[in-house]
What we know:
Layout: E1 13-14, E2 18-23, E3 37-44, E4 48-53, E5 62-70, E6 73-85, E7 88-93, H1 98-109
Amino acid sequence: MVPGAEKRQHHRMPFQKPVEIFPVFPSYSDDHEDGTMAGVSQDISGGGLCLKTQKPLKVGSYLKLRFDMSRDQMVEAFGKIVWVRDALCGFCFFPISEMTEGNLQNFLSGLQPE
């Protein structure tokens, strides 16, 4: 592999939505009183999303995210943080159900690639 080469398997799509963030292992969460925090997605793909938070998250943190994919569809996605740059981080989805994956792919097909 060429150094600096793109590692992404999925095209990113602009996707700016509020996101609720829940640590899967609350004992590993930072000093958030109830273990939850808020963020805003920056883009999304079939493999994950870029997330902006007030406080940087830690690489390797396992999280559940909740966000509106569309007006009538709330999504809960499990995964982990795979990179962090200041207040931005990369969230990689864990394998999801076929129904959720189908809904995500249908939704993404209506967005324009970045």
